[in-house]
Target: Probable protein kinase UbiB
Amino acid sequence: MFLLRLFKIIRIVFAYGLDEFILGHERVRGLEALVRLVLFWRRLDAPRAVRLRRALERLGPIFVKFGQVLSTRRDLLPPDLADELARLQDKVKPFDNRLAEQVITEALGCQLEQVFRRFDASPVASASVAQVHYAELHDGRRVAVKVLRPGILPVIESDLALLKVMAWLVEKLFADGKRLKPRQVVAEFDRYLHDELDLQREAANASQLRRNFLNSDKLIVPEVFWDYTSRNVMVLEWMDGTPISQIEAMQAAGIDLKKLSRFGVEIFFTQVFRDGFFHADMHPGNIFVAPDNRYIALDFGIVGSLSDNDRRYLAINFLAFFQRDYKRVATAHIESGWVPKDTRAEELEAAIRTVCEPIFDKPLAEISLGQILLRLFETSRRFNVEIQPQLVLLQKTLLNIEGLGRQLDPQLDLWATAQPFLQRWMNEQVGWRALLRQIKNEAPYWAETLPALPRAIANLADPARQTKLIEVTEHLLESQRQRNEWLATIAGLLAALLVILALVLR
Model:
């Protein structure tokens, strides 16, 4: 199965002419003539961007998701590739309507007419893992019905098997393989991808995010209808809005793009630092904008979570970056264990300064977080920085946020927008605010234990109980003394036996 899948990938790469992306590199340019000679029969009648998009669709869900991520990186891709890959966000070829209706009927345990007053057989959106249909309940509420693609699991399993082998090869063949932890990264991706194949889990993610942003003036999360939700079907509140990729339509509707770009940054940092729970698939196909200038989040299959320790060190690093305190960045990396403990802080500080100093005081249009990450990666190799698998989704989400911000407001100052929020968050983690929050969290426990405290003190002062406690303690001490004597006797016998053996064998 694995070899067949690998053969299919290679066949599709050459069939769609994707070899030109590789053979264009100077190190292998000499092979271009040989490939043309072998594939003399090939006729490429479509632009390279269209061929790339079609090849990713043929390769399956994992490759489609890779294309979705690339589509947000307009600073790294030529316009023709970015525009075409953007079609992967919700324009993947849908599966048969009868199959969709069959899946829904089996999941609900009844006919569609019994649940929906209206159900549109043609999907309104079709993505790599599922497609969405418009429907109306009998009480008039409009809903979105998300249906998992039938037979998707075997395809994903074969692709994951290929990724695992590739990760193993990277770890074994490359000098940086073990430090980069490719197998752990693939394992994380495996877990998140399987989570995305369970729509009941996605519904739970949506409910959590909705609670976190209930009554928010920046983000709307649709309500889940749990009575009609299962592992392969999910019913959500229908959301009306403008896709965030339609800049001209939002401008015509009077949407404040500059305000919207600031909201995106604030929403990201709120999810990460306040909640430790964030939407990790924020490509343009998953985000709409409401008429009141609020974001609308969709597709909750991939979410990320961070521990308190991760959030603390991330906040320290971000704030230190904003303040150009590169020494604190270096020491935070050492304290968190992201670099070896014997790393010299001043050397790491100098390397980080070299990477980051040129980017400050510039608008977002002149800053590429992607390029910064690449340069930091080069620096990390020198200092044996270990890749943190739990932060991979966070890095991906940050890059998506940058891509969105660049489209909405190229002059957005990412640092100035994020710094006040992070400063407030850090202030809440120390000082009297943190003390009040800790008291609030511990109050239920205190309410339970404080009334019983006088009785516990009285019991300790009771002479009878004190006598009993002394007796129990003396009994335990006597038992321990007897065990010690027994162990000493055994040790003496063993020593004598060893002496006798030594004399006999002499």
Summary: The CA atoms of residues 160 and 190 lie 7 Å apart.
